[in-house]
Amino acid sequence: MRPFRNPLLLKLVQKLRQTNGHRSVDKNGGIRVLLKSLKQGKSIAILADQHASSSEGVESLFFSQPCRTHFSPALLHLKTGIPILVSVTRRVDNNFNFEYVLDRPIEYTPTGDKQADIKAITQLYTTSLERLIRKQPEQWLWSHRRWLNINRKKRKRAVEEALISEQTVSN
Q1: Tally of structural domains, the chain
Q2: What are 52-81's pLDDT values in tens digits?
Q3: Integer Cα distance of 59 and 19 in angstroms
Q4: Is residue 122 part of a domain?
Q5: Is residue 35 in a domain?
Q6: Residue 67 covered by a domain
Q7: How many CB atoms lie within 10 A of CB 74?
Q8: pLDDT greater than 90 at residue 108
Q9: CA 49/CA 56 separation, integer angstroms
Q10: Is residue 104 assigned to a domain?
Q11: Residue 151's pLDDT is what?
Q12: What are phi and psi of 28, to 5 degrees?
């Protein structure tokens, strides 16, 4: 995980996440910790649906739109051969009960071209997540920048210009 800037929020999130034997790992140097955990027979979970920087991710397609996706799961899969299980949580009632829904396991046979393999595996789990979301899209909540072709600065400028134009007309 990337640490929060707000230390109080970081403390709260870590407290909530690190219950029942769970542990959060800083994204810097996290691969080593995850590999060690796997060697100890522990399971790991990676939230890999966030926008990734060019140094942390590869370009993939999500809902037919270009995005950059974290490649850590692909690296771990290539290193260990352990299948990737993509899951979503879904609310099952109004009493805050949820279920995990899993897609089929991803098992990939490497071609020997590491960069192409990373890109292919990353696309496989991105497509798997998309498939799960499509089953019940009303359950999906997303508020982060995910797609590369969204020019937020251009959109913000257009909104600001429209507001200025409205103010000029009403004056």
Answers
A1: 1
A2: 888 888 999 999 999 999 999 999 999 999
A3: 34
A4: yes
A5: no
A6: yes
A7: 26
A8: yes
A9: 12
A10: yes
A11: 61
A12: -80, 115
